[in-house]
Amino acid sequence: MFGYVKIYKPECKFREYEYYRGVYCGVCRALGKCGGACARLTLSYDAAFLALVRMALEGETPRFARRRCLAHPLRRHTEALPTAAAEMAARASLILTAYKNRDDLCDEKGSRRLRARLLAPSLTRMSRRAAGGYEALEQEIRGGLEALWAFEREPVPSLDRPAVLFGEVMASVLAFGLGGEKARIARTVGRAVGKWIYLIDALDDLADDVRLGRYNPIALVYGGEPPETESVRLALDACRFEAGAALDLVEFPDADMKALAENILQFGMPSVYKSLTKKEKTQ
Predict the structure, then answer these.
(1) How far is CA 172 from its chain centroid?
(2) Which residue(s) pair with 79 in the sheet?
(3) Cα–Cα distance, 168 to 148 (Å, whole number)
């Protein structure tokens, strides 16, 4: 996935950070279980966020243990024991990663296209394993991404329309298998965070996309100008506020989980925006 939706460590208590690392490592182990050892290389902060929100929606409190793994064979670390939320996040992450790589294979050139070509067989194999028993989720992801790619082939100057299409993909992922009020909240959070991811990824890729003539909604709307525009910032903030308002309706099973979700929305995501705009200014 993308890796933008992460905590802001300076605002985390030590206990909360250990909790987050435990969930992150739990998703890593789930990736290995559903996709094989190499699937762990696709681990992202976004998948950890998905797992946290799913646990909150399902009222599931993670249990932790001190364990070793391939990445840390010599010392034990805190890791969340297997949960249904971590498994769902891992499977969705692998499927999304494989489809993103397929998109890169079609759109990229040079070394990036070669990288996508080399990764394609392994990612396809891992995503097929991950989709086993989750065929309906894979179909929803594929349908949503194909609608997005069809829109991107038409140079329509809009920030909201493509972001909404990717938001619907994330809404389907987060709400998969849920019903009633939980599904409604999950779709709202997923849609809002998905829109934010799409826009922040466009911001991150802006300079390269302009230079290489690739599709970028920010470039189409603002002509490739530096992205310090108030409207871009406001659009990103609106996504965060929408997700936060939906999560306010969730009864979190413990205080640390709630604190981590709030940290990500209030501090982590804005810090990513600030770092990207600072990077643009130095280029």
Answers:
(1) 13
(2) 65
(3) 10
| 125 vs 197: which has the higher pLDDT | 197
Read off the pLDDT of residues 199-234 as tens digits, 9 standing for 90 and up. Answer: 999 999 888 888 888 899 999 988 766 555 678 889
Q: Amino acid identity of 159?
A: L
Q: At a CB cut-off of 8 Å and minimum separation 6, what does 132 contact?
A: 34
The answer to whether residues 55 and 38 touch, using CB atoms and an 8 Å cutoff, is: no
Report the C-alpha gap between 57 and 52 in whole angstroms: 9
Sole residue written with tokens 């991107």: 152
Check: CB of residue 20 under 8 Å from CB of residue 53. no
* Token digits of residue 106: 């079609």
- Tokens matching residue 77: 């670390």
Q: Which helix (H) or strand (E) holds 80?
A: strand 77-80
State the Cα–Cα distance between residues 101 and 2, nearest whole angstrom: 11
Two tokens at 163? 């972001």
Q: pTM for the whole thing?
A: 0.93
